Amino acid sequence: MNFATGDALYIAPILILALAGLLLVLAEAFYTGKDRTALAGLAVAGGVAAAVASIALYRHLDPGQHRYLYGEMLVADRTGYALSALLSVVIALAALVAPAHMRAHDWAIGEYFGILLLAGTGMLMLAHASHLATVFLGVETMSIGVYVMTALRRRSRRGNEAAMKYFLMGAFATGFLLYGMALVYGATGTTSLVAVRERLASGNLALLTVGTFLMVAAFAFKVAAVPFHMWAPDAYEGAPTPVTAFMAAAVKVAAVAAMIRVFGQFLGGEKLPYGTLGWASPMVVLAAITITVGNIAAIRQDNVKRMLAYSSISHGGVLLVGLCAMGLGSPSGQSALVYYLIAYALTTMGAFAVVSYVGSKQNERLGIDDWAGLASKHPAAALAMTVCLLSLGGMPPTGGFFAKWYVFKSAMDAQDQQLLWVTIIGVVNSAVSIFYYLKLVTAMYFKDATGEFTPSRSAGLTFTMALCAVVVLAMGLFPTTWLGFGG
Amino acid sequence: MNPTGGFVLPVILALPLLGALFVMLTPRGEGSIARGVGLVVSTATFVMSLLVLRYFDGKAAGYQLTTDAVWVKSLGIHMKLGIDGISLWLVLLTTFLTPLTLLAATKSIEKHVREFVAAFLVLETGMLGAFVSLDLFVFYVFWEVMLIPMYLLIGIWGGQRRLYASIKFVLYTMVGSLLMLVAIFYLYVQHGQVTGIYTTELTHITETGQTLGLAHLVLPHDAQVWCFAAFALAFAIKIPLFPLHTWLPDAHVEAPTPGSVILAGVLLKLGIYGFIRLAMPLFPHGAAVLAPYIAILAVVGIVYGAVVAFAQDDVKKLVAYSSVSHLGFCAIGLFSLTVSGIEGSIYAMLSHGLTTGGLFLGIGMLYERRHTRRLAEYGGIWKQMPVFSGLYLIIVMGSAGLPGLSGFVGEFLSLFGTFNAGDTFPTNWPHYLPSPRLLAAISTTGVILGAIYLLFMFQKVFFGPLDKAKNGHLPDLSIREKAVFLPLVVLIFVLGFFPRPFLAKMEPSVKAFIADYHEKLAEPDGPARMMNAEGSPDALKAKLEGAAAKLDAAAARLGGNAGGQP
Q1: Cα separation of A63 and A45, whole Å?
Q2: Is B550 inside any structural domain?
Q3: Would you call B175 an interface residue with chain A, using a CB distance cutoff of 8 Å?
Q4: CA-to-CA distance for A340 and A345, rounded, in angstroms?
Q5: Are B145 and A197 an interchain contact pair (Cβ–Cβ within 8 Å)?
Q6: Is B141 on the interface with A (CB under 8 A)?
Q7: Torsion region of B65: left, alpha or beta (phi above 0 gives left; psi -120 to 50 gives alpha)
């Protein structure tokens, strides 16, 4: 391998996050002040700096241009930097919303911020991965960080159970991933995805098929696709709300970013060379089941966090549809996915920020009934939540609507019978999802308040809610600006 | 075509929306300020919409007052607006009913007035947008945007079972419209793959015979049937056709008076309008296959709605079922595919908007005085409220289709059209289905039944002894209420006595619509392709070759890329 010195410049966002993360770990050890939430500032600065660096690099590259770094370990292109910027912003927001929640629920643990940025390092790596080794490294760096974050509230039973479940399931997924990678290596004799692509046609079909199927299963764990979703509702409910927001928004974006690289670009992108047994066939089925089960399970929830967890599962299904479309050669697949990820991540972040805001001291107010009458007491928060819920439900004029339109349109564009069916299933499911999203809107607007709200206020929280709601609306009204990020 | 006047449509779309934003800036709890702003804005919108008449050329078919702005360039989505003889009167109906309804809502809406006015104005923009948009995507956006304010209207200001009714309303409408979305995707992708141009702009995909030289997309016949079915489901739920009507009585009963007025007055019309503007021109073969069944459902709805209305004790429910019955006339007239049938259908929509709007407004005024909607609680009201009773009688008669009032013209024309449809309408009318003449005959019983239940209702409320103590001291109409009723009553008379000017403006568009439909129906089955309006083989061949070249270029581009991923 030849190590070009200029390559370090291209991984600046990753380096910034890693450095800031290490610095935070040190700072937390030597910091003597009582209020650990003060560390949030540094974490936010790290996230913002990484985002700025990503955007600068994004502008530095031309559309369509790409450059392999450190051999073929990482790839620098516009799509990668768009996703890096998105992930960095989500990381910064996750640091921004945390202090209020920490103060209200007594879990001011300084490690949160360091782990947040270090997990983020893995995520950014996934957005740029072009080698099975970097994919694995990224997945593990991200996952181990998130396991720890889930368990941060040491005295919470639910938190411990959730983290344990998440960790065990995740370990399985890692096994699948490694085994799949080994088989792909066996079939093609290389771990560089660039070289794997060149040797697809000549590789052993059976090994390749089993290998890619196993990798699909491993990533299905990470995006919480049914039937690999069991950990998600518990982990989402058990983790502190800022961590849940981070898991729902960033982990899903990073996992899908890795899938865009591995499946969309290197193992797909045209009609699959290995015929109908390609990975898209199981993925289409997973997508259809995921969308349906996620939505139907969400209807029955009366805990807001669990409802959003199932909703996020069903959104994972839609993302899988987009991946299949991309893998089967739909020209707009990739840009649809990137747009969807931006809309989904910011919407989810906004929704969880409101959840965090509504919870009062020692009482998280997670039941849907606890939200009754929010609109009359705190109209701005209710409005922000409504915008986010409508976007999640795919109602115009929000970013979520346009994202769904674009993903399903790209699925139809792939001219594939299976995708037509999964599109119909997905679209019909949108109607189902409206039911449970509106359940919350109904509680906020149509019912009378049962008690006083004492929200956990902080400037960071307010900023996050406002930013997410405004961007989600802007994405729906002026989609052109945001469409270009997908390349 | 008149090039001037393109500004009118964007302005009448923007005015209510800006008004809604402005209303939200007025101080909280100051209901009268919000009401005032709402009235001024909606009246200004109405006045602006009258400008449409000034610029509209009544002798021309095709879209007029068009404006076109690119919304999403990479996806070919255009903010294209335009109006023709079919949508013209529906737009005016919307802008006319909105200020009246806001004026009438002064008493019935007392909490969250500011939010009410804002929701109402957003609703107006949604409805107008759906009527004037000439882009499938934009149409769909407006179509869905309408749902949210209506959901809020029912849910916040509604009656006892408002939660149930509001969710039911949204879910029914969503399920239907989402399948339409799939059909839009299909159409969009097919058009993109045949021509190489991805666009949702309606005039690109289908051109009427008036704009010769431009081509339209022809889909395989079975695909047309599926797509038409998907669109038809969305529109049939909105109309609503039997047996998809069950959301309507709930929504009407629970909605506050202004919500009911707009729901019956305008929203339901969007279903019929969707058939005319989108489903039938886009998928004519699908329409030909499914039209008989829709026509039969419409007739069932006419009779069923009338019979069920007769059995109601709740006045609002009675009028809600009468809507099911009346909209059936619009549907059957439309599917007769004769000039008089379609004109009758549109005319019946206008009349229904005025009369049923008036019926609901009247019920609202009674409700404000007595706080009940049960027929059994009333009786002898005429003695207490003679002015109200007289005006209400005219509206009831207009709804029942008394000659000389608005309802008669539309129902007569659509039945006349259906009766004469025998030869033209069902090109493949299955022999085991009742003939159009029989359908028209059955529908006519709906007119009689309509007269029966409406007069029965009127008699129970206004005549008879004044034997309930609570009915003893009802004040007659205030000046504000008279101001609400008078324009309605005048228009009901005008539409009844002078249908000609209204029909004349529709006629070129309706004729073009029918000619276009029959032209397209003659096209042979085959894979998705472009046809020019005359269907000349040479032009077609050139078009196809052009498309093929574009496809080849696209394929080459893709093939070249494939190796170099990412």
Answers
A1: 28
A2: no
A3: yes
A4: 8
A5: no
A6: yes
A7: left
User: Does the CA dihedral B100-B103-B109-B115 come out positive or negative?
Assistant: positive
**B445 inside domain:** yes
Closest listed residue to residue B322, CA positions, set B337, B335, B309, B338: B309
Contact A329 B558 (CB under 8 A): yes
- Interface-testing mutation among B182, B219, B226, B551, with chain A (most A C-beta atoms within 10 A): B182
Domain that holds residue B196: 3-522
Chain B: residue whose CA lies nearest to A267: B565
Q: Which residue in A251, A232, A400 sits closest to A305, CA to CA?
A: A232
Collect all residues of chain A within an 8 Å Cβ-Cβ radius of residue B565.
197, 265-266, 269
Does A2 map to a domain? Answer: no
Contact of A375 with A448, CB cutoff 8 Å: no
Paired tokens of B74: 């990479």
ipTM of predicted complex: 0.86
* Domain count for chain B: 1
Rg of chain A taking only CA atoms, in angstroms: 21
Element of type H or E holding A114: helix A111-128
The one-letter amino acid code at B47 reads V
B164 to chain A, any CB pair closer than 8 A? The answer is: no
Domain assignment present for residue A425? The answer is yes
- Whether the CB-CB separation of B116 and B32 falls below 8 Å is answered with no
User: Do B193 and A445 count as a contact with CB atoms less than 8 A apart?
Assistant: no
Q: Does residue B413 sit within a domain?
A: yes
Is A1 inside any structural domain? no
Q: What secondary structure does DSSP assign to A119-160, as a single string?
A: HHHHHHHHHHB-BHHHHHHHHHHHHHHHHHHHT-STT-HHHH
On whether residue B431 sits in a domain, the answer given is: yes
Number of neighbouring beta carbons within 10 Å of residue B437? 13
Total domain count, chain A: 1
Eight-state DSSP code of residue A37 = G
> Over the range B119-149, which residues count as b (16 or more CB within 10 Å of their CB) and which as e?
bbbbbbbbbbbbbbbbbbbbbbbbbbbbbbb
Per-residue pLDDT of chain B (566 residues; tens, 9 = 90+): 445 778 888 899 999 999 988 888 888 777 788 888 889 999 999 999 888 888 888 888 778 888 888 888 878 888 888 888 889 999 999 999 999 998 888 877 778 888 889 899 999 999 999 999 989 999 999 998 888 899 888 888 888 888 888 888 888 888 888 889 889 988 888 888 887 778 888 877 776 434 444 567 788 888 889 999 999 999 999 988 888 888 998 888 888 888 999 999 899 999 999 999 898 888 888 888 888 888 889 999 999 999 999 888 888 899 999 999 999 999 988 888 888 889 999 999 999 999 999 999 988 888 888 888 888 888 888 888 888 888 999 999 999 888 888 888 988 998 888 888 765 555 556 666 777 788 888 888 888 898 899 998 888 888 878 777 777 777 888 888 888 889 999 999 999 899 888 888 888 888 888 888 887 777 777 777 776 544 444 455 555 566 666 666 666 665 544 433 33
Instruction: Report the phi/psi class of residue A371: left, alpha or beta, with left for phi > 0 and alpha for psi in -120 to 50.
Output: alpha
CA A255/CA B257 separation, integer angstroms: 51
Say which of B166, B188, B562 has its CB closest to residue A409: B188
Residue B185 is nearest to which of A408, A415, A480, comparing CB atoms?
Answer: A408
Tell if the CB–CB gap between A430 and B166 is shorter than 8 Å.
Answer: no
A448 lies in which domain range? 7-486
**Who contacts A198 (Cβ-Cβ below 8 Å, separation ≥6)?**
none
DSSP string, B130-144: HHHB-BHHHHHHHHH
CB contact under 8 A, A438 and B74: no
Question: Which stretches within B196-268 are classed as H helix?
Answer: 202-205, 221-238, 247-254, 257-262
